[in-house]
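=== RUN LOG ===
request id: a7f3
mode: sequence -> structure
chains: 1
length: 156
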Amino acid sequence: MLFGGADEGKVLGDLWAWDGRRWSQLASDGPPPRTFPSLSYDRRRKRLVLFGGNRVLFGRDGGGDTTLRDMWEWYEGSWHEVAAQVPGARAEAAMADDRGRRRLVLFGGYRGSGSTRERLGDTWEYDGSRWMRVATNVGPSPRNGAAMAYDEDRRR
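=== RESULT ===
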């Protein structure tokens, strides 16, 4: 699945699926256009979860803080905005489905706008109804633009 991003002229808000041979567009309505959102499939609940991102590709758009903190789920052929307490606004955060523990894990990203950016090093878990911040004594340094995946063999 592919959502958003930007081409040479604008920020996009479309959803695409790859079947192994070709792409097909599933939606062009739903979450507002954005770059660098977190996106993961929640296998247990059978839905795609999208969180945060940035309204602009580069620089300022005149709207102040450009990082987002909205959350959307794709299921039953359409987008649904989720009204839940969510982590703070961020873009370029890593998110993956922890199938062994039946929750999504979100790490890091950045918040801010233009040249004012703060890298984040916090960890959050989503159980399908609420986000919980996870306190860790040891972990990666704050970072953005990283990637995460679930290791099926090691169940982590």
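=== NOTES ===
The first strand starts at residue 2 and ends at 6.
The mean pLDDT is 91.
=== END ===
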